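User: Hi! I'm working on a homework problem where we have to compare a predicted structure to a textbook description. Could you give me the structure for the chain below?
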Amino acid sequence: MATSTQKTLIRSAIAIVAGLLILLASSFIHFRFDLTEEGRYTLSETTKHTLQNLDDTIRVTVYLEGDLPMSFVKMQREVSDLLNEFQQIAGKQKFLIKFIDPQTIGDPKSYKHTLQRLHESYGLSPYTIQEEDETGKMTQRFVVPGMIVSTSQKFVTVNLLSNVLGNSPEEQINEALKNLEYQCVKAITQLTAKTRKNVAFLVGHGELPLVYCYSATVSLLDLYNVDRVSSQQLLDSIQKYDAVIVAEPTKAFSEQDKYILDQYIMHNGNVLFLTDNIAVNIDSLKTSSYTFALPKELNLSDLLFNLGVRVNPTILLDNQCTKIPMNVAAYGEQARFAPVPWFYYPLLKPAKEPHIITKNIDVVKAEFASTIDTLEGNGNCKKTVLLTSSAYARVLNAPNTVGFQILQNEPNKDFFNKYYVPTAVLIEGQCNSLYQTRKSPLEKESQAITRRNQSDSSRIIVVSDGDIIRNEIEVTNNDTVPKPLYFYKYFSFDKRTYTGNADFFTNAISYLCGDEDLLSVRSREITIRLLNKNRIIEEKTYWQIFNIILPILLISIVGVVIFFVRRYKYSQKYVG
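Assistant: Happy to help. Predicted structure tokens:
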């Protein structure tokens, strides 16, 4: 019979062996438990389906390795956990992961040259961190928060940080972690998609030139083929394009061009209308205190009316708006500029019940937006409001004056007398043709299409402002450089950027093209719970004691209790 000492040794040996087996198993099997309220660490069904149906081997090379700042260590851990879970689903033969320290590439003394090569060859953007060394001198440190996702034939670069102006490194990292699953699945989709869908910007009616919608165009190129086509070209290849964008036309549509758009919709085409119904020469305010807002005739009203919406010739003012610089110095004094609210540039917000297009996006900056009415009729169509004004809005009819006089007195509570005014509407379903009881305006009906009077299923989005996809430009040394869509030229006064514009635009196109699965990954609601910095500073000593001294104290108490229990147990045994 084994003695008590032998039993103790056997139990200890079993515990050690079990611990080693668990440790060994954990190195081969990756798993994590998701205890978050919103299921942050649970992969979406779209992600799982994508990984389970890989036809080619995916290789992911991550450059977050080496001596990293603490905030980027968190990002590295999150990336590693997510990719390991991807590998668990796809299989180790189909999904390969490699972490590389950029400083180990080439000569460490020429690290900046390595970063430049990574940027030029692969598009990886290094992130610069300003740090204070032991002597108090500020030094630069570089991190490469990105990865290359590749197959045997091509690769996609994923830069995890957006480098949005005004956002702190912590805010950018948190935003990157929220979009991490989407960025990875999007890259895999780019590499594995057998065909790419086609999107076209319509031209020929004074629409936005490429230089002013360059940022919006580039944002689509990751997933779609993008063309710029005339109405005739659209007619000749009416089945080719999954979505057509009408971006801020300034010239009236002819009946022939309008008929082509109508027939494109009847052939189950999808259209994003970004139309301004008023014209304002904002540049004239540089030399005058006011200008005029005049109705714009685009000859699209009956087409949109037939689809079930009406874009009104109105100007939307909103208390939730951007800021512009205004000279507040008295007459004769040196100019002194201060930020003031510019009610003509409203910040549109998602409707109270957000659609998948607008879910979890920031406000959308507009310029001289109009109001939209939804109407009944026209086939079996469903209408959904996507964007609205805030609860403090005002509507002016055009023609009207636009000027700085509106800023001379602070508006009273009765000034903003409208609330949640629609500015963007989605129409989907079976739509009837505007020309079902009319003769075709084309001199000769195209042989490429058969005239239809009703669509089977179309999606149309109407937005009352085309400027939401207009990017700023910078002209230097005769070079015109488009700025990112989120950039606002008065950033130094407004102190914010507008990522909601790009998100709304890309989400809208994804929905029109039928890519709801990928869109659902992007629209997941993930909450990043940040630490309270004030409490960290004020209660630093308390939590240090709590986390260091308390565990030691508890272990000591447990040890003492076990000691006396065992002592009492064996003393009773020997007495008996």
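For your comparison, note the following. The chain has 15 helices and 25 strands. Residues 491 and 566 are 71 Å apart (CA to CA). Good luck with the assignment!
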